Amino acid sequence: MSRQFFLNKETQWIEPVDQGTNTWINYPNPVTPGLFAAKAEIASGKGHDFHCHPGREELILVLQGTIEQWIGESCKILSPGDAVVIPAGLAHASFNAGEDSAVLFVVLTPTELDAPLGEDLSNLEPWNKLRTRNT
Predict the structure, then answer these.
(1) Residues in a beta bridge with 16
(2) Could you tell me where the DSSP H helices lie in the chain?
(3) Mean per-residue pLDDT for 90-96?
């Protein structure tokens, strides 16, 4: 079993996504089998639409930019240094509310190791109409 404790940038995996990029700092491995950690960049005008993480808790820390953060049907504007914790299975979304890219540090930990990483809710009610109702 390879035990990697130091995670330099050469070991990170960059994943292009619709809203920008996810740089996976830690994907589950033999040292930390249940820890996901990433830097997520969200381009201006983009967002990570409503979704949930069945069996996984999440922590989001805003490093740069302004985020319109939804937890269930509640919304707050977050700035650098603000953070949010999201219980397993709770619907949430993060949208860039500024003109420049926003950068988040995201950590997911499992309460259930076999749970999927995420589940898209953006086409389901009330999530598919929530932002238009509140903007």
Answers:
(1) 21
(2) 130-134
(3) 97
